[in-house]
Amino acid sequence: MDNKLIAMLACPVCKGDLKLDRERNEMVCYADGMAFPVREGIPVMLASEARTLGAEERVDRPVG
% helix / strand / coil in the chain, to the nearest 5? Predict the structure, then answer.
């Protein structure tokens, strides 16, 4: 995904920052504990398509 696109995206639930998880191909909102899938290079920013982060994922969140 293009870094400019990543910088423009916000969580559709809380409007907070998202981080790209390249390994899982997801946009992650640590504030809400949700991960939105990226399919064929396109982020699917629908709460109904997001998965809930597990407790271990919330603890290991990146800083910055």
Answer: 20, 25, 50
CB 36 within 8 A of CB 9: no
Question: For the chain, which domains are there?
Answer: 3-59 (2.20.25.10)
What is the C-alpha to C-alpha distance for residues 10 and 28, in angstroms, rounded to an integer?
A: 10
- 21 CB contacts (<8 Å, ≥6 apart)? 27, 28, 35
Encoding tokens for residue 6? 């990543």
pLDDT digits (tens, 9 = 90+) for 9-49: 999 999 999 999 999 999 999 999 999 999 999 999 999 99
